[in-house]
Each structure stands twice: as C-alpha cells, then as structure tokens.
Amino acid sequence: MTRENQAYRRRRALRIVRTLQNARPDAAVELHHRNAWELLVATILSAQCTDQRVNQVTPALFRRYSGPAAYAQADQTELEGFIKPTGFYKSKAKHLMACAGSIVSRRDGQVPKTMEELTALPGVGRKTANVILGHWFGEPAIVVDTHVKRVSARLDLTKSTDPDQIEADLQSLLPPKDWTIGSQQLLLHGRYICLARRPLCERCPIYDDCPWKGKFPR
C-alpha cells in the first residue's frame, strides 16, 4: 500500500469516527460499574451475553460480593446462582474466583493497569483487558468485539477476521487518542444501527462513507 493510500485510509477512518461521535456524543461503556473491579467482573460476564442482561444481574451480585476478596472466598455454587442468567455460568464463576484470588494474592487486591498483567489473570483476554485499560484507566485501547469486527469489515477498515489483527489495523488508522472512543463508537454503531441481520441503513450517519455491497438503499 502506498503512503498516499494509507494517508487516505487514515483520513477516512477518522472522518467516520468523528461523524459517529457527532451522532452519539454520549458514547460510553454500557456495563454498569463503580470501580475497576466491578467493570472487570461485568466484562467477564458479558462474554456471549448482552450488556443489558449483565446489568440486570450485577446489582444483586455487587451487593453480595463487595470486592475481589469476597469473590475469592465465595461458595462457587452460590456465585453460580447469581450469574446463571448470563450463560456459561459455571466457567464464569471459576474465572471470577480464580481472577479474584490472583488479584488478592499477587496484586494486593488492586486491578492491574497493564495489558501484560491483565491478560495474565484467569479469564481475561485482550478484549476484556482493553475494556479496563480504555474505559477505567484512560489508556489508549481498542476493544474488538463481534460488533466492531462486523462494522470494521463492512466499512473496509480491515480485511481480517482475526480480532488481534483487526485491533492492529484500527491502531494503524486512528491516532492513539481516538482508540478508545473510536472503537466504542464502532461497537455502539454495530449494536444499534449496523445490525448483523438487517442493518438500519436508513438511520446510518455514515451511509455515504460505507462501501459495503450489502447495504440497503435509502
């Protein structure tokens, strides 16, 4: 790819993000939380589950378990009962307890602030780590979930289906200061407008910038 082509792709990617920001200026992570640990718990629970369902579960969960130490000492069967509506509750309960135990024993009860330390925790991959880094610690971070994956492909911001490569592609197109908000805008656009089965093209603010051949005519 020539420098001119890459420069154009960068200008276009930034224009897309800016347009989405104008359309949804209040974009933020939609998982309810009050601290880094609660955001980490909610993000782990959100795997294969909607944020809405997680938000229905976490109020009672957070009242019962106040922090990492409480999760580390929890009765697994009881914990499973709280999180069962999120699906895959047995493995999620194990991950939460192991993650909490690691934070208590190795991190003095504090959620770590680096990608390396976060992904060393049980049940924490790059997507979860980027949620914590970007939306709690304010570090430049690109979250690649199923919505970002779909929207990035339709907008021709990536040719890959691999989340790590999509993250790298978006990093190459956006300045670091726009990584967190940019990926969040793509995520919410996919969640509410650029739907998997029937995208709401008639409501799309970036319709003219979308080269996807499957888009619906206005």
Fill in the keyword field for this structure.
single chain, 218 residues, mainly alpha, 57% helix
Percentage of residues in strands = under 5%
Structural class assignment: mainly alpha
Number of strands: 0
Oligomer: single chain
User: What composes the largest sheet?
Assistant: none
Shape: elongated
Mean pLDDT level: 97
Number of helices: 11
H and E order: HHHHHHHHHHH
- The value of Rg in angstroms is 19 Å
Tell me the span between the first and last alpha carbons: 33 Å
Uncertain spans: none
Q: What proportion of the residues is helical, as a percent range?
A: 55-70%
Characterization of this structure:
With 218 residues, the chain is mostly helical. The chain contains 11 helices and no strands. The longest helix is centred in the N-terminal third of the chain and has 21 residues, at 3-23. It starts with a helix and ends in a 26-residue tail after the last helix. The model has no long low-confidence stretch (mean pLDDT 97).
